[in-house]
Structures
1.
Amino acid sequence: MRPLINIRHLERKSVPLQGELTAAELDLENLDELIHVSDSLNYDLEAEKVDQAILVQGRLSLMLECECARCLRPFQHELELPDWACHLPLDGPDRVDVVNDVVDLTPFIREDILLEFPQHPLCGTNCKGLPARKPGRVKQSSGASPSSEVSSPWSELNKLKF
Ligand SMILES: [Zn+2]
């Protein structure tokens, strides 16, 4: 459910906004090979009118399904913005789009959530990465069969997933 603010309602008092935004509504699907958004974003916000602007403040949280950039292990990473704030002018050159008295907060939430995405997701700060391969054991371009005894990162990953 998109967080929509009716600016008429703000004339008298602040308006609470609570709900969930799906990955599809946020357009956060298939953005990154190592980061997937499988769950909805939770928002718990309050909007008020301050002078000729809307001020929105509150909490955003989103669970990310990541793959470690070093060892490929899947792990979860919770993005939490406990003091998110957004200032939306209703006047001037930067004024926000208002359609039928309604402002959609979705693009502003999306923008700030994207900035919080890990640039280089790691399962842990001390991740050692994949076990070093012993020289001489790895066959080069000899068409290793799927039943090969050599443990690859992908077979390790498959064991974790199934
Ligand atoms: Zn790792």
2.
Amino acid sequence: MSTAAAAVADANRYAKSIALYERAKRHMAGGVNSSFRLGGVPVPLFYARAEGAYLFDVDGNRYIDYVAGMGPTILGHAPRAVTQAVAASLADGQLYAGGSEAEIELAEMIAAHVPCAEMVRLALSGTEADQAALRLARAVTGRRKIVKFEGHYHGWLDSICVSIKPALNAAGPESEPVPVAESTGMSPGAAEDLIIASWNDVVALERLFAARGSEIAGVIMEPIMCNSGTILPAPGYLEAVQGLCRKAGALLIFDEVITGFRVGLGGAQKLLGVTPDLAVFAKAVAGGFPMSVLAGKRAIMERLVGHGVMHGGTYNGHAASVAAAIAAIKELARDGAAVYRGMEALGKRLMEGLKATAAKRRVALQVQGLPTVFTTSFSDKQAMRNWRDVATGDAVKLAAFNRALQDRGVRVTSRGCWFISAAHTSQDVDRTLEVADAALATMVK
Ligand SMILES: Cc1ncc(COP(=O)(O)O)c(C=O)c1O
């Protein structure tokens, strides 16, 4: 299609979003409320409603939605069990600035499912719960340094917003990466308390611990890296990191903001059989309502009481979010967690179908991850291990593929991450594969 014809097609398909974007830009910076939404094409789209597996934009276009609110809507959009529980809770008020029995019920449920969750604290966002985990690690160990891996995301605040997607020409050698700030305006000292490392590389981490183990308060990681590709830890890697932490007296922190309640009820720690000292959950835990959880071993979590470790939040334990989380976890656990088996079967079929379509079209599309969360990328690498591999992917092709999917009614995240929900059906997968075939066809011409 010529550029002029494409512009006309956009103006037709996305007319109302384009008009709303012009209006939004007048009073919202960039027309959006998160920097991650700035890159929408042809403009950041505006949505009117969402139901089950589908999202409807203001122009009436329907999307089979694999963005899933960036992961949280694991039961689909507006799942009745969750929305009814929230509606019922509203009749009793919204915010007590004090305890409720529902909070205790939720804490008990999380403790029953998550191996490390002897105790929990509730909060609202993954970013802030990650900060609480870092503070606790420093308080418990009396040390300053946190080991953070390239490509992993733990929120947008200064103390950790480093080396998330660093340009390779600025990131130093893979064996000893240098910190790269992800934003301007950050405190120049922000990265001073971080040591940046390459994930999935035991030898490099052993070297680091041998040299600096006594300075390290904790190691934080996504136990399955979902923010840059969807990459599983190499066999034995998590156990090795845990061993290094234990030997050095440092804490192992799993950021399960994405993997928690998504890859299974007990998160990646249960799936992979390694129990961290602390973990952070968010996203899927409340089925799309704001909720995060700091979870951890009793001896560590008790430092939040009477040892001067501060953790606050006006909205922590918000009644609607607590009601949503209880309802969501009950749904996920129903019938022996049958919902996961359904999502896994569908996700597997979708992954295999995408691989087969790409092979048929002779396109180097990589499909990597787990059935409930996986990533598509354009790379000649057969398997990705860490950010350095992910960074070799062809971003232009990925954007073109995502755009071709969007124009045909399938929505995936801009980084190529697909989230399966319990609302997706076999027909949705069939339709998605037809659309993917058509999208790839546009790319081989
Ligand atoms: C692994 C991980 N940690 C932390 C965060 C930050 O969570 P929030 O956006 O709720 O602050 C995210 C968000 O995507 C995430 O994926």
